Amino acid sequence: MQQFLDQASHNQVFHDEISKACSNNYYDWKITVLFYIAVHYLKALAAMRNINIGATHQEIEKSVNPDRPGASMKITKTAWRNYSQLYHSSRNARYEGIADIFVFESLMQIDHGYCLKYLDDFKKYVIGQGLPLN
Amino acid sequence: MEEQLTIKTSVDQKADQIKAILYLLQTHTEEFKAEIDRAYALLKVGEKTDLSNKIEKIMDDPLSNIFQISSGVDTQAKELIDRLVKSFLNFNKEIIRQAFRTKTFFNDLHYSIVLREDNLNNREKMFEFFEKYDLLEIADRFPVYLQFVPIELISKIPSSEEIIINN
What we know:
The complex is a heterodimer of chains A (134) and B (167).
Chain A: H1 2-21, H2 27-48, H3 57-64, H4 77-93, H5 101-128
Chain B: H1 2-44, H2 50-60, H3 62-91, E1 96-102, E2 109-115, H4 120-133, H5 138-141, E3 144-148, E4 159-162
Parallel strand pairs in B: 2-3
Antiparallel strand pairs in B: 1-2, 1-4
Helix pairs in contact in B: 2-3
């Protein structure tokens, strides 16, 4: 479990550092890092419960999505929505179809604000599940 | 009473969407059946239609045709998913100001959406699409992107079509 918490913490520090150093750009990267913090939280929760939820997004989705019959570690609907919204936002952030970098950065800046909220709510959920986070 | 009416309207809309999809499938099936009948009839008198030629090509060179078939299936699947997304957007028309299919190099299922009010609740309603879609096996093969865009930036995003929201 600790290794996943360390990775989450590592990513959080990285996010905060680039947010300080580059306060007006790289929102696509910031969003992607926020999503991976959530991934590590989930993996830590699974490790704490001795449940294998897999490594890829598809495997994790099948293991934790509350709408999946037989999911091995269903999380609450609200937690799933926060996680899923982070996932889809990070996918949009990695999408290369919008060529105008100014427009893309502007969109990502707005999405980043929402992702901070999604991750904050998701963090509250995993803490409520007993994950030892600061 | 008002709530009952709202529920009824919502149920009616869903029924209309199902009818539209069934009608589409029925039309496609009937057209395909007619094409098969024509090909069969003409082959009896020694004439080949496009369909007969395609079948013959597949028999002669099955490997190269697999790629063409796969590409055709992909195109049809994308068209169907595109219809699903449009239905979903219409279903949520009260929170959408404008919606566009984004013009992309690979013709991805990418949509630029201007919400009437960009807030957590409205974004959540849009993300509900993925609650159903992500359960389908096709979700990994045909990813759908819903990108929220402020009205002042929408003109700067190239689009292939505006999605008509029936208000």
